[in-house]
Amino acid sequence: MSPQIHLGSRVVRAGDTPYVIAEIGVNHEGSLETAKRLIELAKHGGADAAKFQTYKAETLASKHSPAYWDTTKEATRSQYELFRKYDAFGPDEYKELAKHCASVGIDFVSTPFDDAAVDLLAPLVPFFKVASADLTNTPLLRRVARAGKPLVLSVGASTLEEIDGALSTLRSTGATNIALLHCILNYPTADENANLRMISSLAHRYPECVLGYSDHTVPQSGLPSLVAAWLLGAVILEKHFTHDTSLPGNDHYHAMTAEHLQQFHREIQRIEPLLGSHHKAPLPSEDIARLNARRSIVVARDLPAGHCISEADITYKRPGSGVSPLYWDEVIGRRTARALAADDVLQWSDLADA
Question: Quick one: average pLDDT of 55-72?
Answer without folding.
Answer: 86
